[in-house]
Amino acid sequence: MELANKYNPADVESKWYQYWLDHKLFHSEPDNREPYTIVIPPPNVTGVLHMGHMLNNTIQDILVRRARMQGKNACWVPGTDHASIATEAKVVNRLAERGIKKTDLTREEFLKHVWDWTEEHGGIILKQLRKLGASCDWDRTAFTMDDIRSKGVIKVFCDLYNKGLIYRGVRMVNWDPKALTALSDEEVVFKENQGKLYYLRYKIEGEDGYAIVATTRPETIMGDTAMCINPNDPKNTHLKGKRVIVPLVGRSIPVIEDEYVDIEFGTGCLKVTPAHDVNDYMLGEKHNLQSIDIFNPDGTISEAAGMYVGMDRFAVRKQIEKDLEAANLLEKVEPYTNNVGYSERTNVPIEPKLSMQWFLKMEHMAEIALDPVMTDEIQFYPAKYKNTYRHWLENIKDWCVSRQLWWGHRIPAYYLPQGGYVVAENIDEALKLAIEKTGDKTLTVDSLRQDDDCLDTWFSSWLWPISLFDGINNPDNNEINYYYPTADLVTGPDIIFFWVARMIMAGYEYKGERPFNHVYFTGIVRDKLGRKMSKQLGNSPDPLLLIDQFGADGVRMGMMLSAPAGNDILFDESLCEQGRNFNNKIWNAFRLIKGWEVSETATQPETSKVAIQWFEAKLQQTLAEIDDLFSKYRLSEALLAVYKLFWDNFSAWYLEMIKPAYGSPIDVITYNTTLDFFDALLRTLHPFMPFITEELWQALTPRQDGESIMVARQPELKPFDKTLIDEFEHAAELITNIRATRAKKNLSPKEPLELQVVGTRTNRFDSVVVKLANISAMNVVTEAASGAISFLIGTTQYAIPMTGLVNADEEIAKMEAELKHLEGFLVGVMKKLGNEKFMANAKPEVVALEQKKRSDAETKIATLKENIAALKK
């Protein structure tokens, strides 16, 4: 292969991705190998790629590619989620632009519009993932609303209903007035809100006095059916057994007593609105209070309120403040900060609302899902999320699974003409059950009416690791038995309750075992200032533009260098630039090696022999480190280890050690071994940077069509000589010191220098020191020559005679100036270390740093004094 002078990702990436597809290198079928399975967290079907997807899918691809190169049967299953609320909202908006209301359409007509939208926009994100290099088995692409997944969802609903775990009832739910649907607790996001606390005057019936009630929601007074005080509150004893008049409304309501009321909040008097507050609802149930629903589904005031009918709830809040003031029924208003629940999807404040919904009992599910995580049968990375998980499961509430939407899996409940309902997988089965239940054989399918509601989107997602292998409909099929449980789940901690916990529940309920072995929690992608990326802030780069600019490998590396597990990612485009520069480094190193003339007869120099021994040891040490880091899911550190191995050890040292003299050939043994090393480096790098490694691996040696680095094995781990690595570190430090001395003294690199070793020592890299530091002679002496510049490496002293090379007077003046500066610096450090207050209050690591400063300064001062003394002799 002819290689271009400069690496251009655009020339390489689409070519090799198509090659991988053409040879079905991503495809997996059950066989006798160890399976390695990952299921993709399904993005919204009409979504587009954002930085969070980039991070999540880069991590998954690294894990999958590495497993494939370890000889495992790697299967990464892609798919998309139908995203009920988000998708329906987009279609409703699109229809509104055309002047069509959802309410003007039949369910079937509306769903046709949604399917059209889904086909038009669906799957774009999966195509975009190909640009990233995602090695998914695209033949297995699934959709939560496809036939297999839909059939499984309905089957599970019916099964849980028949087990007595799903029930229907009127309960207080979180209502989204914009999406017009109930939400689960997990779909509510609490935000700090700067509002007001209104002190309202409730007249005591039959008296002249007033009871003062503090509330943040004066617009709900039309739904008040009681006032509540704490029986232990002395300041409100006079209200016991009384009735009060709701301001403006004029309704007489009882004063009830309950220890639930916080004596310290406001005046200790609580207005009770059972239809519009979770806690008030519980008080209403306990004290048998009337419940008045004053809100329409869209958040406007209903006829039941009797006032402000049709007005928006927030408009009423403003108006009622004025009206209360005008009626002298507003005691005072104070600024007040509280947490308000918002719909995660539509970002509007939710409304607690009594509503007939379907619920899944969660107590049993929590019981089966808690222990596996707490005992590490399923391992969380980082482990800190175990406590978050435990807290949620131990305080779990029943899951509201119904949504007042048309797009989604329709609830398989069928209502009977004479009342009641049956739950069945299809209409024919429902008819049989209906006839059995009623004894009425005249019933037909037309007699039954299916529930209008849909299931929560997460009710399909929680089955994902099972349903992708058709494990619900065909529980004992070959694929589910082979691929399940999956190996790793990569996801964000923000959906630990929505998705992770529920998949664990479904796994144990329907397969009797865990759905995955490990869960890797990514952090949130933030900008370099620490702000969450968002369209509003304009700080979220387009991932595809980044790929165009830096190449997929550059972007992957940029993401991973900033992505420690579970911690937020401070993304900076300069890291992508670093990734692109690394691509160029790899490319240029390959071109350098391939550009050498090779001699079959040249003798291998000693420097090359020892360089090969050292790099083999260093390679093995790094491979062992990478293996350990992968086992702990510290992928960023694993990438950094490969990066340093290539950039620092291979390019900066090894290639310099073996590089032939200008115009001379390289011996064939060193050349072939270097290509072998390059091969090993490419295979180690491939999971992180798939495109450039494939391009160069194909260019290393002639390949057959269908061969790919993707299915080449990861380098084999072998024992290594640690002492050899230590000796090289010593030699490398020695070379660095000699080069620094040259720079300091303005000596040309071409000027050969004598190196004196004071005392005895052995090092296998002396030939390397001679070559790379341009040493004319390395002599062992008992004392450094007069005027020599000396330095310590470890416990060994080295000296470079300066006679005839430098102006002694100028050098002494320079060193005395540096000595004066260091001595002043040391005085400051010693003062700090002698300060009892500092020593008592400073953190141990701060004290340790100051002690190191002292030690370093003392060593440098001693060396400077020796060098000054030597030059003065």
Give an overview of the whole structure:
The chain has 873 residues and is α/β, with parallel strands linked by helices. Strands 7, 8, 9, 10, 11, 12 and 13 form a seven-stranded mixed β-sheet that branches. α19 (606-631) packs antiparallel against α20 (635-658), α20 (635-658) packs antiparallel against α21 (668-685) and α25 (808-833) packs antiparallel against α27 (844-872).
Content of β-strand? 15-25%
Q: Segments where pLDDT lies below 50 for 5+ residues?
A: none
By DSSP, the count of extended strands is: 31
Mean pLDDT: 93
* Largest pleated sheet: 7 strands, mixed
- For the terminal residues, how far apart are their CA atoms? 63 Å
Shape: globular
Give the radius of gyration: 37 Å
Broad structural category: alpha/beta
Count the DSSP helices. 27
Proportion of helical residues: 40-55%
Compose a concise summary of this entry.
With 873 residues, this protein is of the alpha/beta class. It has 27 helices and 31 strands. The radius of gyration is 37 Å and the shape is globular.
